[in-house]
Write a structure and sequence with these properties.
Order of helices and strands: HHHHHEEHHH
Protein name: Putative phage terminase small subunit
Number of domains: 3
CATH superfamily of the largest domain: Terminase, small subunit, N-terminal DNA-binding domain, HTH motif
Pfam families: Terminase_2 (PF03592)
CATH topology of the largest domain: Arc Repressor Mutant, subunit A
Strand content: 5-15%
Number of helices: 8
Shape: flat
Keywords: Viral genome packaging, Viral release from host cell
Distance between the termini: 57 Å
């Protein structure tokens, strides 16, 4: 990965990745506890160490954590009945393992999870999104009104809120 680092620096980086704490990472890497805080912070500014940490984090992210596409593909396989699970069943004299396809309940749950990622297809989620947009616009209008020091803020704010309400009514009736 990066041959310019000393063994101690690599150990610091690896420990920092595990804990996110520069001081603890420095101590575990073998630096003096008295100077660990400053050494830890200094190490985080060194370009070679930054490159090493970034590369390691990317490697961890790509190999160990499922991305959104993988999750959606899994939910889709469950929904389509392509995923199976092994279920142990006890008999009188032994335990037998059978392979089972997803139940209707599992498929409904997978469907809901998929639809959460596409809120515009769900009318309730679409309404929640519209409300969030309206709330954001109101907050932005309030902030703008506060910036306009020379004007009557109350009057300006009421006017903006009325305009936003009219616009929302007009958009909501489509």
């Amino acid at each position: 990965m990066n041959d310019n680092l000393t063994a101690k620096q690599k150990k610091f980086c690896d420990e920092y990745i595990k804990s996110g704490n520069a001081k603890d990472a420095a101590i575990k890497a073998g630096y003096s506890p008295k100077t660990a805080k400053s050494i830890g912070q200094e190490n985080l500014t060194k370009p070679d160490l930054k490159v090493y940490i970034k590369a390691k984090m990317k490697e961890i992210e790509s190999h160990k954590i499922a991305n959104a596409k993988e999750v959606l593909e899994f939910y889709t396989r469950v929904l389509r009945g392509e995923e199976t699970e092994e279920v142990p069943i006890a008999t009188a004299d032994r335990v037998v393992t059978i392979t089972k396809k997803p139940s209707i309940k599992d498929k409904v749950t997978a469907s809901k999870e998929i639809m959460k990622r596409y809120p515009l297809f769900d009318p309730m989620e679409k309404q929640k999104l519209n409300k969030l947009i309206a709330d954001t616009r109101i907050s932005e209008a309030k902030a703008k009104a506060m910036e306009d020091k020379g004007q009557d803020i109350e009057l300006l704010l009421d006017k903006m809120l009325d305009n936003l309400a009219k616009e929302d009514l007009k958009n909501g009736s489509k």
